[in-house]
Protein: Germin-like protein subfamily 1 member 17
Amino acid sequence: MRNVQFLTGFALLILASSLASAFDPSPLQDICVAIDEPKNAVFVNGKFCKDPKLARPGDFFLSGLDKPGNTANRLGFSVKNANVEQIPGLNTLGISAVRIDYAPYGQNPPHTHPRATEILTVLEGTLYVGFVTSNQLNNTLIAKVLKKGDVFVFPIGLIHFQFNIGKTNAVAIAALSSQNPGVITIANSVFGANPPINPEFLAKAFQLDVDVVKDLEAKF
Structure:
């Protein structure tokens, strides 16, 4: 009887341990190739930590998000980051922020954050925003017009966008659930890949004429 209790307890411990260790830490960069020789290591998953006793207020501080970004570009938008690159104290804390400025009819084009969910708050203006679900949910568009004070969530990894539909400038602040969310702008990644993706392949994938694809690749 005692052996049965011991084996039962041991089995439960093993099960609990396997459940506790079944989730890997989220990747904090695009790739992290394993190597056998530590002296050749350049990156870890995240950043190396300084001695906590040497931490200073400046490690946790960033100014300037009150100032508008330069939207004089072909898309009419600007992003100011507040992630681990600007605030070293964010390392391992799993959060970051951005300020996004939009010129009239400017847009933050379709993109995805491979490592973060985003929650966006409109501070000024009117934005049309949305995201597209995965193939399993039939690529459904979930979109809404937002005004000052409205909040919208973009789930991790899903393609999403923001478009200023107003005649005045718009401003938003977004928080993201990673110290380094990453960003993949769809058009840039597909048509601006380096080296370029074979235009005949893209023509078939997007059901376009090859010359149209070559023209798009030349623009990106």
